[in-house]
Amino acid sequence: YSERNAKQNAFASIIEQYRRLAQQTKLLKERNASLLKAVGSVRANPSSSTVHVPGTASSEDNPVRAAYMASLESQISSLRDELATVYKTQGQNAQRLLAMNETLREKEEASRLETENLRKAREEVAHLRRKVDQHAELMSEKDRTAQVLHDEINTLQLELGQIDERNQTLTKDNAKLLQRWLDDKQAQANKMNEANDFYEDMRSRHQAEGEAAVETLTDASDQTPNG
C-alpha cells in the first residue's frame, strides 16, 4: 500500500502540474485573444489607441502607434512561444502520464500475481499444516498402539517367566520322581535278585540233599543180602 500511495502522490503532483498548465494556457489564450482584439481595434480605429501628436496627418506616421504595434506584435510572438512551450510540456506530461499509467498497470498486474501466488502459498501452507497435524495424530496413535503392545509384551514376558519357572520346578520334581521311581525299581530288582538267589540256593541245597539221600538209599540197598 505504501508503494501505491507513493504512485498516487506522484500522479497527483503531475495532475496538479497539468491543471496549472491548463489554467495558464487558458489565461494565455484569453490574453492572446484580447491582444489580437486590441490589434484589430487599433487597425480599425488608430486614433482611439494612440496619443495624438500635433502636426501628424497620417496614422502610419505616428511613432507612438508604431511602437505600440511593435510591442503588441512582440508580446504576441512571445505568447506564441510560451504557448508552444506549454503545448510541448503538456505533450511531455501526457506521455509521462501514459508511461506511468502503463507502469502502474504493470505493477498492479504484478501485485495481482503476487497476491495470487501468496494466496496459493497460504493454501499450500494450510494444506501442509493439516497433513502435519494428521501425521502427528497418526504418530500419536501409533505411539499409543506401541505402548499397548509394549505392555502386552511385558505381561507375556512375565507370564513366560512364570511358566518357565514352573517348568523348571516341574522338571526338578519330575527328575526327583523319576529318581525315586528308579531307586524303587532298583530296590525291587535287588529284592528280586536276592529272592532268586535265595531260591537258587535253596533249590541247590534241596537238590543236593535229595541226591545225597538217593545215594544213601542206593548204598543201603547194595549192602542188604538177597534173601
* Major beta-sheet overview: none
Number of helices: 2
Q: Structural class, from helix and strand content?
A: mainly alpha
- Stretches where pLDDT is under 50 for at least 5 consecutive residues are 48-59
Oligomer: single chain
Number of E-state strands? 0
* Global geometry: rod-shaped
Strand content: under 5%
Distance from N terminus to C terminus (CA atoms, Å) equals: 172 Å
Mean pLDDT score: 78
Order of helices and strands: HH
Question: Residue share in helices?
Answer: over 70%
Radius of gyration: 73 Å
Brief summary of the model shown:
By secondary structure, the chain is mostly helical.
Secondary structure layout:
Layout: H1 2-44, H2 63-223
Helix pairs in contact: 1-2
Explain this structure to me?
The longest helix has about 160 residues, at about 65-225. It contains 2 helices and no strands. Residues about 50-60 have low confidence and may be disordered. The termini are far apart. The protein is an all-alpha fold and about 230 residues long. The radius of gyration is 73 Å and the shape is rod-shaped. The chain is about 90% helix and about 0% strand. The chain has helices at about 1-45, 65-225. Helix 1 packs antiparallel against helix 2 (about 65-225).
Q: How would you describe this structure in keywords?
A:
227 residues; rod-shaped; 90% helix; mainly alpha; 2 helices
